[in-house]
Design a protein that fits this description.
3 copies of one chain form a homotrimer. Chain A has about 325 residues and is an alpha/beta fold. Helix content of chain A is about 40%, strand content about 15%. Chain A is globular.
């Protein structure tokens, strides 16, 4: 679709240099990440879990928005690759003293960072950073760890990895993504990953108030009833309902949400007998998912977490082996 | 008293797998921890302080209650053993987003943790975690770093280690524990450690309002007057008076507490001439202890801190060498 | 001026044992730090940036005042030297429970620290710590990372390093330091460094309300007009205007400050054609410095950050190789 030079994630050789979004990533790049992750799954099972691929490299975790869990998985991934990891308490830092985002980035670049892992409440912030470093410090890699309501590409990739692990082949699958699609960067990244990998039927399931427009153009089938959404599905991805939605005007109440969109064993029975249930965490038990399902045999929710470390190791090692931008 | 299978800290071979409480620990297990700590005291004096016993292992510090000092000593201990240590800012994490304790533990388990060091304001929280991991992830070790008013086993062990260092033999000692016994997890762990190790006279000294019932059944002599408590003692363990007690209804005032239960040089003179004074820190100078005593020749308070690192290295290395639970 | 025994930074052999202030440091010591930093600049350009000079040593970052940036540069420096670095969340620690500063230091000493990097809001706090450790734990090194309005010696050293890099020789230079000299520990450290290194003309430039008395006695020329201050200068060091000054009674407004003391391209043109512009960061663009200057060809502001890591590596390695105090 876009030429290499126009894709801000790829260098002039078409190699992945930043990971900003799954939107626009060639299928071959995604597949290489998934197969590289395979090799790191085995590392984690060894007595010593560390490999020296990033020895001497400095990875800076820049979490402008708190997320202990995602930050920790990136820290584990980078340290298993033997990188030096620096966690910046960026919320209490110069940014709070009124320094601009790019001045902060310039300073950290001058500290000889090799990669930035960025979580930011504003959609597009990692793009702004990558565009800036590509011009001024072309050896630096930027990994988007979630930006606003835009993208969470490593979550999309680990979801794709998990599905491939259990279902082997994407070409016959029906995947239902259920919940607050409108505000979900996870949903957006999942849709791009799955449609690029050739999943023939991706369904977005939720109340009309929480469904964005334009889904059909992305190749997604819209369902406003949960029963329609899960019927015959191979994979059900439940999204976390943010607590601010429960108090908001878009939804009547958490209890009513559960009655209509909570995944129960009875509803799960409408899916394929070997269907798997996924969730990006943290779960709201009794809101979007019933505990019997969350802890049941169809649930692969904790396996997602384990796979997430291998996928993040894959992303960090692949970008680190790419040539400089431009 | 309890069979191995009933003791949640021991595996089926009777090896220490978790450290949750000194209550119920066989004397041989305690003695093995103390003698293992001996070997690490020497490590700390070497030019390079690190040994590779836990290389490739991931130790997660889960401090649901802040304690920079205890967290740091565990971090030092684990890093001296070459473990990868992850400090989770758990207070600002998913737990705060309403996730249950066991869902948090499940997620960290899925990140391939090898050990959890847990501080929690609720008594019993480390037991809940250990019972859960023993069932679902039997290779994981849980170390209690202080739970509510229940137990602080590594403090009890380092106190026992310190006493053994200075007094060589437990079998002739009189040990006075002075202060707010009622609310003190340190006192409880000290009492279990010292009675198990054969100290013939353990005294609990404090105002009636701060003494729990049932001390006599634990083999402890109760004294409500400080002079009676310290007279002839070999060891005096002063407890920190929590500031909330000073404001509370259980005590008239900090000044009156000091007048009745503060350890001064004059009162210390009632103890044996070679008596040692201990304190778990941080001290309230002028409340439970006079500065002349805190900084005097009888004080071994800072030595306790140094020994605490060796004792925590011993605990981490011993549990790590045990077989999986069940 | 002062004999070695009277200088709290030097041991009896005249070696640098603590770094507390540039005031009183012999020129030879400063020059050794700068030349040692040279050797670390090359390290940073290697594929693997770490050297084993501090392997097995424990460096404790004690930031009683938040500064993510300075803390991170010290952490990078110490880890590049292979030290074990412990970041203490000292603001949330025992200090907050009412423990005295020296009791905190005693405890960390008992944890077998080898060096303390101290940032404190109170002028003199690192001296108090160094005097204490020199007596009780003479192997420990104290590095001042900024104390109140007193000193920020590593900033002074990195500024001197930067100037030497671009200008080669100090003996013919005119250096203008512009802004809130009165409250600036950076200005004080810069003045001591530059006069000791033989800079013939150091100018302090700012409004009378922000200039301390006694500058002339330090060999500094006072200018209350920016044009006079920058005319013919080889080096211009702009200071950050603290936001509390902008709201305060010492200054009318940020806009008026910029009009009188903000460095613009037009004013920079009054300096030597090859003048360099420096700033300790974080910058207030449009307050003390115009963006065209901050991002222009004369600016070496980001290079200062890079050099700062090499200078901090030099300080840590030099103090670590000194003999014990006394």
């Amino acid at each position: 679709m876009s030429s290499h030079s126009a894709n801000p994630q790829l260098n002039s050789k078409g190699e992945l240099h930043h990971l900003l979004s799954i939107d626009g990533l060639p299928r071959g790049v995604i597949e290489r990440i998934l197969s590289t992750a395979d090799s790191f799954i085995n590392v984690a099972e060894r007595e010593v879990k560390n490999v020296p691929l990033l020895r001497g490299k400095s990875v800076f975790n820049l979490f402008f928005e708190n997320s202990t869990r995602t930050r920790t998985t990136f820290e584990i991934a980078a340290r298993r690759l033997s990188a030096d990891v620096f966690n910046l308490d960026i919320v209490r830092s110069s940014a709070a003293k009124g320094e601009s985002l790019l001045d902060t980035i310039n300073n950290l670049t001058a500290m000889q960072a090799d990669a930035f892992v960025v979580r930011h409440a504003t959609s597009g912030a990692p793009y702004l950073i990558a565009r800036h470093t590509s011009r001024h410090a072309p050896h630096i890699h930027v990994i988007n760890a979630g930006d606003g309501q835009h993208a969470h590409p490593t979550q999309g990739l680990l979801d794709a990895y998990t599905i491939r692990h259990y279902k082997k082949d994407f070409s016959n699958l029906t995947v239902a993504i259920v919940g607050d699609i409108l505000h979900s960067r996870v949903a957006r990244s999942d849709i791009h990953a799955l449609t690029t990998l050739g999943v023939p039927e991706v369904r977005a399931v939720g109340p009309l108030t929480l469904l964005p427009t334009g889904l059909e153009q992305m190749g997604v089938r819209v369902c406003t009833k949960l029963d329609d959404g899960v019927r015959g599905a191979d994979v059900i991805i439940m999204l976390r309902l943010q607590s601010e939605r429960m108090r908001g005007t878009l939804l009547p109440s958490a209890a009513e949400y559960f009655a209509n969109y909570g995944l129960t064993a009875k509803r799960l029975a409408l899916a394929k007998p070997d269907a798997i249930v996924m969730h990006p965490g943290p779960m709201n038990r009794g809101v979007e998912i019933d505990s019997h399902v969350a802890d049941g045999t169809a649930s692969v929710i904790l396996t997602q977490v384990t796979f997430g470390i291998a996928v993040r190791m894959a992303v960090l090692s692949i970008v680190s082996s790419s040539a400089s931008m431009q």
